[in-house]
Amino acid sequence: MLVFVGAIILGLWAWFAYQRQQRAERVAHLKGKIAQRKNEQAELLEWARAEAEKIPSQRRKEIGAMDFNQLIAALQSGDVTSLEAVTTYIGLSLAAHEKTNCVTMYIKESVKHARALDGRRKSGESLPPLFGLPVSIKESIGVTGTDKTWGYAGSIHFPSTRDAPTVEMLKQLGAVPFVKTNVPLSLLSYTCGNEIYGWTENPHKKGRTPGGSTGGEAALIAAGGSLLGIGSDVGGSIRMPAHYAGIAGVKPSSMRLSLLRIDDGYHGPKRGGGYPLIEANEGPMAASMETCAEILKQFWASSLVSDVDPYKPPVGWNAAQFEEGRKYRIGYYTTDGWFDPTPGCVRVVEEARHILQMQGHTLVPFSLPDVPEMIRVYVATLTVDGGVSLMGSIEEDLPPAIFLSALRPLRVPILVQRSMAYVASALGYWRVAKFMRSMTKSSVELRRDYASIQLYRARVVEEMRKANIDMLLCPAQVMPAPPHEAPLHLSAGCSYTAIYNLLDFGAGVCRVGTWNAQDEAKLECYPTSDPWYTMAKKFSKDSVGLPLGVQVAAPPFKEEAVMRVLIDLERNVPKA
Ligand SMILES: CCCCCCCC/C=C\CCCCCCCC(=O)NCC(=O)O
């Protein structure tokens, strides 16, 4: 018996020693890949600096001073060549990167691409509508020849062999992808950092996140390094960064714009997406909602979307919905009953309501039903397998320590989490308890939750129809741009955007104002009834001057109406 026990102990010791050895070798391998990538990035930054200097700085200043419409017109007329535009934005993005650490890699091919476009002009060809426009792309989106690591060191040096559908469409429209931008590890967070490329700063305040997961894009655009970016969104990754960085962003419903996760890199089914029913999809980000609308108008002006992704219905641009002067009935709310926003985030919704009423729209109070339960369902169906794949992908890589601590609760056995939920409830932490009941432990539960999403979608659109409401106005987030670590403690703070991923509504965010001294003072009365509110209060302090956005959302195929309302709003708010 003793020999048997000894053999077991020895076997276990050998197994753990082997595991430790394997992990040490993997860590060394990943650290080597990161070091190699950092060198490659440094070389590309030097390349960018040299490229930018090929255009006289005065000429770059002239081109950089043009807004989106002016640059498009100058490119069409030939006053600006594609090469000049791309080179100018290589320079401007470099300056933005030095301020915010927002760029992951430059796309060297963009210079050759711009030259080829200029050659087409000389040949007298007719020019596509976005001829020569430099565009920035979120790192996780496929651009031929570039990595899409999602912040995973294990995914370095698996370059895409083809463009993602939205990139393909941009190129067909004449645009030139020239740079890729930073993301948080795994994309499932609204901060913006990883061990490969580091942490991206909010250009409005160092030490604050630009949001995520399309945070690099938001920082780059807000810092003037790009006129147009493409991001992706499954819980608010276009809209929360737009709010934090004071820019505009649109997440169309998943049926209008593609996100064929092309698994030609490391990811494959192991990592890429896999959130059925709650589809991630791509969308535009820019300094203004008008630019976002112009891009989607070009995407939807023909059958381009369904040509590049047959799974998308051929739904064209709806000019009537977008018509200037069109008035809508808009439901509004300032709390979703799950996470009360901090004062400034409430105030800008009230201000937006007033502005839109002055514009002739009808604003009526509206409450989204049952948000707390639907956020539990959202988390359950987003993580799908109880968080096993998410945890496995992160733990086998080289995550920043704070990501591991954020994931630690998911390591607790689900039955233990659910038992602890009773304790959390008894302490009055009903929201924490709800989260503790979110991880799925079986396909039986998952089916039930998928069914509840379908029933919820029908219920919400029915209630909107009964109230004769076209769309909804609400906060974009619960706080202004917080410190980098905040989102990893407050995943629950994504409820204002995530609910519209669950509903698969089209939704957009534009900047309405900034956090002011009154908001700071009112923060004293913000609740501290559970750890999440206490943290949201702490993370929102000292935010005077930070941008604040609002969100507008509507059922699928009404994205044009959403953008019309957001443009009516954007045109009537005080400029930053
Ligand atoms: C990575 C560690 C975080 C812990 C995750 C806990 C379980 C996740 C539950 C809710 C988090 C939802 C956050 C959503 C943020 C935005 C995600 C997004 O839109 N990503 C874009 C994309 O995937 O393309």
Question: Which structural traits does this protein have?
Answer:
576 residues; alpha/beta; Amidase signature (AS) enzymes; 11-stranded mixed beta sheet; two-stranded antiparallel ribbon; 23 helices; binds ligand LD2E54VC; Endocannabinoid_amidase; lipid degradation; fatty acid amide hydrolase activity
Overview of the structural elements:
This protein is an alpha/beta fold and 576 residues long. The protein has one domain: Alpha-Beta Complex (Amidase signature (AS) enzymes), CATH 3.90.1300.10. Helix content is 48%, strand content 11%. It has helices spanning 2-52, 57-64, 68-77, 82-100, 109-122, 165-172, 215-222, 239-245, 289-300, 304-308, 319-322, 343-358, 371-383, 388-395, 401-411, 414-426, 430-436, 443-466, 486-489, 495-502, 517-522, 531-540, 559-570, and strands at 103-106, 134-138, 176-181, 193-194, 198-199, 228-233, 248-251, 281-286, 329-332, 362-365, 471-475, 506-514, 547-554. Strands 1-3-2-6-8-7-12-13-11-9-10 form an eleven-stranded mixed β-sheet, sandwiched between helices. Helix 12 links the parallel strand 9 and strand 10. The longest helix is centred in the N-terminal third of the chain and has 51 residues, at 2-52. The mean pLDDT is 95. The site of ligand LD2E54VC has 22 residues, from strand 6, helix 13 and helix 15. InterPro entries: Amidase_dom, AS_sf, Endocannabinoid_amidase. Its EC number is 3.5.1.99.
